[in-house]
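Hello, quick one for you while I still have it in my head. My current little project is about how a certain protein chain folds up. You're getting the sequence in one-letter code plus the fold written as tokens. Would you mind checking whether the tokens look sensible for this chain? Here's the protein in full, and shout if anything looks odd to you:
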Amino acid sequence: MYNRKIQFRRKIMSKRIGNILTTCFVAGLIIAVNNVAQANWSETFGGNDFDLTWTFGCYPAVTGTFTHLIKDGPGDDDYLGLDESTPFDLGGGSYGSAFGMGFCAEDFSDVRVGAVVNVMGDASRNYSGIAARGNWFIDPDGQMTGAPGMVAIGAYTLFYHWEDGPRRVRIEIMKIFMNDDAIMGTYMPEVPVPGLDHVRSRYVELDVVGSDPVYVTGSIYEYKGGPLLVRTPTMVDTGGRDPWENSDIPDGWPVLAGGKSGVFATNENPTPVGYHVTFDTVSSVSDGPSAVCLSPADGATGVDVDADLSWVEAAFATSRELWFGKAGAMKKITPAGTTYDPGTLEFGQTYQWQVSPVEGYVYTFTTAGTPDGCLSVDDFESYSDDGTLQAAWPDNIDGYNYTFLETSEDLVYAGSKAMRYECQNQFTPYLTKATRTFAAAQDWARGNLAALSLFFRGEDDNLEQRLYVELEDATGPASAVAVDNPYSYAIRTEMWQKWTIELSKFSDGGLDLSQVKKITIGLGDGTNSGQADEDKDTIYIDEIRVCPPRCSLDSRADIDGNCRIDFGDFAVIAAGWLSEGEYELP
């Protein structure tokens, strides 16, 4: 499974030259950062010739059977092959190289490396891929490392490999040290590539952005410019060893600030013999890396409506375009920097955004709230039993519980749960309150919020009593403002009613809507309700929300507050007639 002898040699090699190379490598990186060339390049291998200067090598270089040849393709579409025909000999005799690699031309810092990898059936269990910010040296006689050959001091790499045939193609990101890929060790992520049987070419990309931290992302496309098949999470490299790095990397080994781009192949197994991997159209560009670490993250939910957009982009990006808007309605924006304030977003909406160049990949996030643009105060779905609801909605009567979790289908307005709220206002204090205290004060002065609404229903044998909602802000009880339901018989209706209250009715009373701390639902007015003996009156509460304006909330004919003049309004009037024999418009 793994050549322990070579692994041991690498560890000896690391100890032997580690201190010297660490000093030299860090110094070299400082020079590279200060003098990084940004000449984008692309190598097609057309015409059976190299257009650029490449350096190829292998490790260990003993048998001379490693080759790096341009091979004839159809027409003039030639390609590069990295081949090793000698198997490993675990006994220490004649063996082929474990690694074959090639680095090209310029040093890069922020960079996108891309290549076509030709996935062929005879390459099963070969490991291949592309490298960024690579730095290497040649040990000509093996005095430094224990064997002659080319040694990659460090690089960010995208491993593209498969086991048991190309149906199990996988993609991984690694930071390597001294040729040690630790391919059978622990690493992350290992992302299966979706699609068909993969017995053909794929286009792979590796984006490396930043200095400390460094953000490393790998992608596979059906073909260059084609559908995205898979993208790894963005790996972050800091000054310490991160979990995705090779376990043999020394503590404190620096982030890789610059270096060359290249391709590689490896196979440390005696069978199948050697390795055979081909590449086409290898490129390295400084103005191509995608923006990374986008915030809000792709797929995020519950995003604050005041959230700003932010991202990390390549230092040498030649342009910046932001596309942003509701799903299906993005608009082009040209931000001044790597943040953008979209203003106050709408509650419960899905937004899309794309920072160019992201090449077709659109990120989405959804703001907190309900799909109809409201902020949910409580829908009671999160409570598991009476105890959890009573902890959230305690009543004001010592020693008694009057709030309960209701799950009966005909007593729930939406979802599967509601609050059953009882009262016995024939006893002192002749007033029952159920209060929800928010862990953090709620800002209801944002997002175009205009009205508080809740659904309630009662029982026909309830006695008429006052029903009200009271809000209190973070300054304390003196700020409390109550709004009454206009109908004393409201709690007798057995039909669900939507009660909508303009937030201005609370703010006009002095409440600070930007820091709402408590909401209370009250029954009674402090005088004896006249309920008999141990009688309990009961109402049910569901779907408490704060919403933007929907229509004129003071429409006298819109009795049930649903912004329509319809049968529901007649039903409320009819309930009033049944209760009192008459009905007056509010």
